[in-house]
Structures are given as structure tokens and as C-alpha cells.
Amino acid sequence: MLVRGAEFVIVGGGAAGLGIAWQLALRGKKPLLLEAQTPGGGAMTASGGMLSPAYEAEYEELPLLRAMVASLHRYPKWASELGDIGFVESGTYEIALLPEDVPYVQRRVEFERAQGLAVEWLDGAALRKRLPHLSPRIPGGSYAAHEGHLIPELLRDRLVEAIHKAGGTILSHTPVKAVEKVGSSFHLHTPKGIYEAEQVFVCTGVPLEGLELPFRVYPVRGQMVAVENLDPSWLPAPVRYFNRLAGYGYAIPKRGYIILGGTVEEKGTDPSLTLGGLLDILRRAYYAFPDLYERRILRFWTGFRPATASRQPILHKDPTAPLYYVNGLYRNGILLLPLIGEGVVQWVLEGKLPPELEPFTSSDLLQEKALRPHS
Ligand SMILES: Cc1cc2nc3c(=O)[nH]c(=O)nc-3n(C[C@H](O)[C@H](O)[C@H](O)COP(=O)(O)OP(=O)(O)OC[C@H]3O[C@@H](n4cnc5c(N)ncnc54)[C@H](O)[C@@H]3O)c2cc1C
Question: Which long-range contacts (CB under 8 A, 24 or more apart) does 59-66 make?
Fold first, then answer.
């Protein structure tokens, strides 16, 4: 059955798809978004909502760092236009768990400053003045003042409302199983019928329902735990903690709770919570904040970060047709959302991408030879 589609159809209502749909709707394009589950039901609402360029980019990921900074700068405007998304410009801390970790955290401070980011080093005593519940064992850490965090569920809700208000349509429980080129348009095959489109944006994160993409997406599992917190001053900003052997963990304040995260595991699409995963999360958090011991656990969950072989985002346009793939937002899709939303729409409607997104159109990124293990 052929169903009336739209000029612009977006497949997948996660961070990328909702951001693009809103920007298209704001420009009067009345987009149609087809979502396999419900909006935000993929990685988006599994995420911690941290907006932290300084601590997320690896040393060799300068283009990604620039894109994250450019996107972060857009958030105050997005937050004022969308309404309450739980956006707080709190800054972010990164602390060394043991004395032997201090040089690693200090090395990052040098790197971040060399990139023009305002990051300060604080010894243990100075840190504890700002984070009173931090363990006296913590030797020191850094603070990036311009960063922040938000509540992904609120961001999802506000985007859905804004898309509807601006004339867009979202259809939940409408998985796209195939995108077929037919003459000068596309047919999107779903169990509810075939939707017609002139331009298609495939923003599936880890694709469901067997939809094939021209590159591989690796699901990178993250396990997360929420613990009760009724006192906002207990943890005024997200804190990432680093240990040379155990890796990273983080605690992110939210309204009424703290998110403790997160594992980074390549286990295919197995959604299990594991004893080892939870143990890793909880023992790092407890080492940094011993007072957490009596906290009530509210819930725990897993999500899949969509990673490409290179671990970089991919913005790929089919060479023969207006078919766009936006994927590989991996650990930073919430942070990258404003830049992706505005930038991709500018690319499609005006033919030029913001310079910060250009590195991610390279066809080299489609190659498996760019394969990197997760980090
Ligand atoms: C545990 C965890 C913690 C994270 N923490 C942070 C953080 O603190 N800060 C940050 O910036 N980022 C974070 N992220 C990453 C962020 O959530 C992702 O980068 C982002 O959600 C990816 O956006 P996306 O739109 O590509 O994919 P998703 O958000 O997964 O959305 C894709 C959507 O497409 C739908 N879909 C899939 N296949 C089909 C199909 N065939 N037809 C129709 N719809 C389909 C899915 O149901 C889904 O709703 C975290 C992720 C995880 C898992």
C-alpha cells in the first residue's frame, strides 16, 4: 500500500533525527519522521546528558573536539527556544582517583588549554571546597567551567513538542525496513505501508529491523545506574573520575537523582546488565564519593552508543540521490545535536556545511580500514 509521505522524511527519532526534523520544521518544510519505537527510545534517553567537549575528545580527535565546542556554544540558544530541557551550565570536573593518575589528568589539562579551552587544575583540598562529599583520598583534578549537562528525556519531550508545533509529523512504531529509489523519489517500506519521499535522512543510530546502511554501525553498550539524591548541593556538577587501570566513570547530577555511569563494552546488541558492569560503576563511584554507600538505587539500564569503525561521526550523501546518512555520534550525540541539526539542514537546503562538520563527510570514514577499538 502506497501511503502519502512528505518531501522530507527522516528515519529514526533519536538525537540526530529529532534535531534535523526540528530545524526542517522551523524552515517550513513539514518533515515526516518515522520511528521504529518511540522518539528517543534508542541511545538518546539512555544517555547521561553530559555536554563535555574538554573531557570527551581523545588527543588525536581535534576535528571532533572542534565540532563538540561549536555545538556546545549553540546550547544556550537552543535551551531558550525549546523551554525546560534541564540545561545547566555547571562546568565539569575530572578527577584523578589515585596519585599515580595525577600526571594523566594534568596532561589532559595541558592538551585542553592548548586547544583554547578554559580548564583549571585544582589540588585535593581545593576540589573538596567545591565538592564537599569527595573522598579525602582524591589527590586532585581539573574543572572545565564552560561545560554543562541536561536531562535527555526533557530534551526529547521539548523537541517532539516543537516539531509538532512547527508543522512536522512524527509516527512512532513505524520501523523502516528498506529505502528504495523509485524514479526521482524514494519508497520507504514499513509494516504500515510504503511512504513516499523526495529527500531522505537516515538517522537510525544502531539500525533496527534489518535496515541496511552503506557502512557498519557498532553498538557500544553502556550500563548506567541512577541513585536517589534529594539535595542538589550534594553534587553541583558532573564529575568524571579516572584511573589508569580501571578507566573512566562519572557521576552526573539530575533532578532528584544522580546518574552513575557508564561501561563502554562491545557485546553486540546484548542488552544485559551484568554483575561486572555494575561492580565497575559502583566501586569507582564509591571510591570517589564514599557517602554514596547508603543511597537508594532507583533504576539501572543499558543503551547502545552508535559507533562507526573510525569512532568518528559520518555525514554521508548518496552520490546519486538526495539520500543522507547521519550516524556515528557514538558517545557525544546529545552534545553534537544542535550542530548536527542546524548544520545538516544548512547542507541540504543551502548546499554548504558548517566547517566544523566537513571532516565527517570524508568517504575515508566509510572504510572498515579506519577501524579503531572503542575508547
Ligand atoms: C549509556 C550512554 C551514555 C551516554 N551519555 C552521553 C552523554 O553524556 N552525552 C552525550 O552527548 N551523549 C551521550 N551518549 C551518546 C548519545 O546518546 C548518542 O550519541 C545519540 O543518542 C546518538 O543519536 P542517534 O540519533 O544517532 O541515535 P539514537 O539516539 O539511538 O536514535 C536512533 C533512533 O532511530 C530509531 N531507529 C533505528 N532503526 C530504525 C528503523 N529501521 N526505522 C525507524 N527508526 C529506527 C531508533 O529506535 C532510535 O530512536 C550516551 C549513550 C549511551 C548509550
Answer: 59/111, 61/312, 62/115, 63/312, 63/356, 63/359, 63/360, 64/312, 64/313, 64/332, 65/115, 66/356
Which protein residues touch ligand 1 with a CB less than 6 Å away? 11-17, 34-37, 41-44, 46-50, 175-176, 203-205, 207-209, 211, 222, 224, 261-262, 303-306, 327, 329-335
Which residue type occupies 113?
Answer: R
Cα-to-centroid distance, 355 and ligand 1 (Å): 24
Take atom 4 of ligand 1 and give the residue whose Cα is closest: 47
Q: Domains in the chain, ordered, with CATH?
A: 2-46+153-216+309-370 (3.50.50.60), 92-145+218-307 (3.30.9.10)
Query: What band does 98 get if pLDDT is binned at 50, 70 and 90?
Result: very high
At 371 the pLDDT is: 54
pLDDT given at position 372: 59
Give tens-digit pLDDT for 197-254. 999 999 999 999 999 999 999 999 999 999 999 999 999 999 999 999 888 999 999 9
